[in-house]
Amino acid sequence: MLDRNVGGTDRVARIGFGSVFVFVGAVVALALQRPLVGAATALVGVGLLASGLACRCLVNELLGLDTTE
Fold first, then answer.
1. Is 42 contained in some domain?
2. Number of neighbouring beta carbons within 10 Å of residue 33
3. How far is C-alpha 63 from the chain's CA centre?
4. Residue 15 and which of 1, 7, 58, 59 are 20 to 30 A apart at CA?
């Protein structure tokens, strides 16, 4: 079974920054006519959102980090 390794402030920060990155990516892609830059920015945001919502992070696991309380 996969254990959680993201929690507390780290989780809140991932969800918050992920949301901002998705929004900024959409604005860059649509309003500024830079679809590749916008898509890349939004993709980073989706990754942060996913790891925050799932409480799992592959990078944390590879580095041996655990931010759960």
1. yes
2. 9
3. 17
4. 1
Region for 55 from its dihedrals, namely left if φ exceeds 0, alpha if ψ lies in -120 to 50, beta otherwise: left
The answer for residues whose C-beta is within 8 angstroms of residue 68's C-beta and 6 or more apart is 4, 5, 6, 7, 8, 55
- What is the domain extent for residue 42? 8-56
Q: How far, in Å, CA of 38 to CA of 25, rounded?
A: 4
What is the pTM assigned to this prediction? Answer: 0.90
How far apart (Å, rounded) are the C-alpha atoms in residues 14 and 25? 16
Structural domains in the chain (count): 1
- The answer to whether residue 13 sits within a structural domain is yes
Q: pLDDT tens track of the chain, all 69 residues?
A: 689 999 999 999 999 999 999 999 999 999 999 999 999 999 999 999 999 999 999 999 999 999 998
Examine residue 2 and state whether it is found in any structural domain, yes or no: no
